[in-house]
Amino acid sequence: MPEKYQLRIDEILHRQAGKTVLVEYVYKEEHGSGRIRSYHIKVPRDEYERIARRTWRTVIPFDKWLKVLRPFMLGDEATDDIPDAFRILDADHSNKIDVDELEAFMPIIAPRAPPRVLREHIQKVDRNFDGKLNLAEFTDLVLKGIGRDIAFIGAEILLVDQDEIRELRTNTIATIKL
Questions:
Q1: Dmax of the chain from CA atoms?
Q2: In this structure, are strands 174-177 and 36-44 parallel, antiparallel, or unpaired?
Q3: What is the pLDDT of residues 55-112, one digit of tens each?
Q4: In this structure, are residues 98 and 131 in contact, taking their beta carbons and an 8 Å threshold?
Q5: pTM
């Protein structure tokens, strides 16, 4: 019998003067066996922009980056956002996303993600084996959670039992701060 599984994702946008200044994603996975996996991602605008200025790669402006991040983080809860995210990443308007275009999204959330790792993730959904993603393949990447896996490269995630949770002051086990 399959294990009961529940996933809760909260997206929290902090705004000042009409601009998003901080986005947070809070995850809580509960498995029927009593295991709980919780994690929390915070991305402040000022920190994003500071890192973007220092990187040698092309970087997407923060507001557009948030439009790409949302479906990556929320998966099937943000299916309506997938086409916009695809168009933003498809910088050369070829109707395909290659590793270089995906890297424009990655250096902030997963700065240690080498192109080899991105290619391996792309291969999981690349049905025509061209090393690029069309909209249908990109949609698969997002809906299967592979996009979220890419975003979590380098993140530490901790599995705990129900008894251990009671001892914790917060459900945030791992925080990724930029």
A1: 52
A2: parallel
A3: 777 788 999 999 999 998 898 899 999 999 999 999 999 999 987 788 777 766 666 6
A4: yes
A5: 0.77
Closest CA to 62 of 74, 73, 46: 46
Q: Which tokens in the block code for residue 70?
A: 């949302």
Residue showing tokens 């996996």: 37
Closest CA to 89 of 113, 71, 76, 73: 71
Which parts of the chain fold into alpha helices (H)? 45-54, 62-74, 82-89, 99-103, 106-109, 115-123, 135-143, 146-151, 162-167
| CA gap 103, 155 in Å, rounded | 18
Q: Report pLDDT for 40.
A: 84
Domains and CATH numbers, the chain: 5-177 (1.10.238.10)
Polymer length in residues for the chain: 178
